[in-house]
């Protein structure tokens, strides 16, 4: 009986570890693709913030990068996860980091748009 429980526990931990490795490998490949396709700034922002663009979009439930949608979802999730209303400080901090990452991505996109407009004018 005890052996069965131990074996089942090891299997669960093993699957979780394998899943974590797969996710890390996928994130690593995504970062490499972003760097190779000219997304050096975006990849650098992911590295600095410790959060990928995709993860930030998932946290804030954002499909398109618009300042209005980001702000609306951020405010809602920040309030819902406020510790004073029974929320989680950890989740609230993830919401803040996700907003920071998305704001940085908007800044990067804005800079790239301005550079491309300048290049077409000259």
TrEMBL record:
This protein's UniProt keywords: Membrane, Mitochondrion, Mitochondrion inner membrane, Protein transport, Translocation, Transport
Membrane topology note: Peripheral membrane protein
GO biological process per UniProt: protein import into mitochondrial matrix
Compartment annotation: Mitochondrion inner membrane
Cross-referenced Gene3D superfamilies: DnaJ domain
One of the record's GO cellular component terms: PAM complex, Tim23 associated import motor
Annotated coiled-coil segments of the chain: none
Parts of the chain that traverse the membrane: none
Pfam families, A to Z: Pam16
Sequence similarity: Belongs to the TIM16/PAM16 family.
Protein name, as recorded: Presequence translocase associated motor 16
